[in-house]
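Hey, can you fold this one?
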Amino acid sequence: MTQIIPQVDLQQFLSQESSSRNQFISDLGAAFSDIGFVALRGHYLTSELGTALYEQIRAFFELPESVKMKYHIAGLAGQRGYTPFGRETAKGFTHADLKEFWHFGQYLSTAENKVFQYPSNVIVAELPEFNSIGEKVYKALEQTALQVLKAIAIFLDLEPNYFQPFVEKGNSILRPIHYPH
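Sure. Predicted structure:
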């Protein structure tokens, strides 16, 4: 039997109208309970911001290998910056994945990075908008995730901010991936 992935609109949850909020919570909870997936609309990542990210990422991956390698930080296991083609291997496999990627991470102060032991984000000098667009997208996705977690908490009859302490300033990453031809 083929199931269709349910679609929900985050704007319902952000609405001041309780029936819209409740419908979103119910639909989200049902989707995760029944099939484990949901297509989310109305999130904080605008199409303009998404397009800007794709343009910046494409421009980065089109840079000469020698330039991209300036942003490969040895010893970080790819946790920030650039990881070249063929360097990552899936767990349990011996052949390297056929991809290169970039990691944007949490945007914290230098002091907070030290407390949490996170590496700092790597700044790409050749593309002036690369890092600012990456930061905006990262924050939009994080803001979206926080709202979805609030709705899940409510669905589970928990306090709305139940998950907040577990994810606040968490070590999540935004990983644009390029699969060369």
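The beta strands are 7-9, 39-41, 81-83, 100-103, 177-178. Let me know if you want another pass with a different chain boundary.
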